[in-house]
Design a protein that fits this description.
Layout (H helix, E strand, L loop, with lengths): L48 E5 L2 E6 L13 H24 L12 H10 L15 E10 L2 E9 L5 E7 L3 H9 L5 E7 L2 E7 L5 E6 L4 E6 L3 H9 L3
Antiparallel strand pairs: 1-2, 3-4, 4-5, 5-9, 6-7, 7-8, 8-9
Length: 237
């Protein structure tokens, strides 16, 4: 006869009924033992919730990270975005105009071109004298060409229009078509200090005053008004 066993003791070799294989013994908790320690390390992050849209795969939505779509932006938001872009552009434009002299014509010194023309001694050279302060010289050159040489000086008039003074010994039958196009035609005399100036049409909206001399042709041409062209031609000395 076996001695009595405690009520919570598990038999060492339990035999299941009906001839089944024996089951391994299950370890019973030992009285007074400390509970198992929780796993070490951070708890796994919770997976973001999935939002399913009809006909589209589910998309993860993170709490607090939702943003407005472009179609949901208000007119005020778009106006503020546009303002942020325009302010730097306006400041740069103001700096360019106010401090760097933007949109101001670049003036040149015509004296070297006149000196070269006089040194070449191929035709008599005249130069404007007494023009007002509103006249600005923007180009000047002396070049030898086939059958002669050309002295060109470009001006910006007080009204902001263009005028060009051409002095050349190229034969008029070649010079005038080149400067005024083949459509340039005489329109009658122009009274300028007794000199025999002629009015001519020019290219586009340009008009011209032409002085024909035996060894030189002088042309004052541009889109400037007639009174400004006459002032330039009359100032030649």
């Amino acid at each position: 006869m076996e001695p009595a066993q405690p009520a919570d003791r598990v038999p060492a070799d339990p035999t299941p009924p009906d001839g089944q294989p024996p089951l391994p013994p299950t370890a019973a908790p030992v009285a007074g033992a400390a509970p198992a320690a929780p796993p070490v390390g951070p708890a796994p992050a919770a997976e973001p919730a999935l939002v399913a849209v009809a006909g589209e795969p589910a998309a993860a939505v993170r709490p607090g990270r939702a943003e407005k779509s472009r179609s949901e932006r208000s007119p005020k938001d778009m106006a503020l975005s546009l303002l942020v872009l325009l302010v730097p552009i306006a400041l740069l434009l103001a700096f360019y105009r106010g401090f760097l002299g933007g949109e101001q014509p670049t003036t040149v010194d015509a004296a070297p071109a006149y000196e070269q023309a006089r040194a070449a001694n191929v035709f008599a050279v005249t130069e404007p004298s007494g023009l007002g302060s509103g006249w600005r010289t923007v180009s000047a050159s002396f070049r030898t060409v086939d059958n002669g040489a050309n002295l060109r000086v470009g001006y910006l008039t007080p009204e902001g229009r263009g005028a060009q003074l051409v002095q050349s010994n190229v034969p008029p039958e070649r010079l005038l078509p080149a400067e005024l196009t083949a459509e340039g035609q005489p329109q009658g005399p122009a009274d300028l200090g007794g000199a025999n100036w002629q009015r001519y049409t020019g290219r586009g909206n340009e008009q011209a005053l032409v002085l024909l001399e035996p060894n030189r042709t002088v042309i004052v041409v541009g889109d400037a008004r007639d009174n400004e062209l006459r002032e330039l031609a009359g100032a030649l000395r």
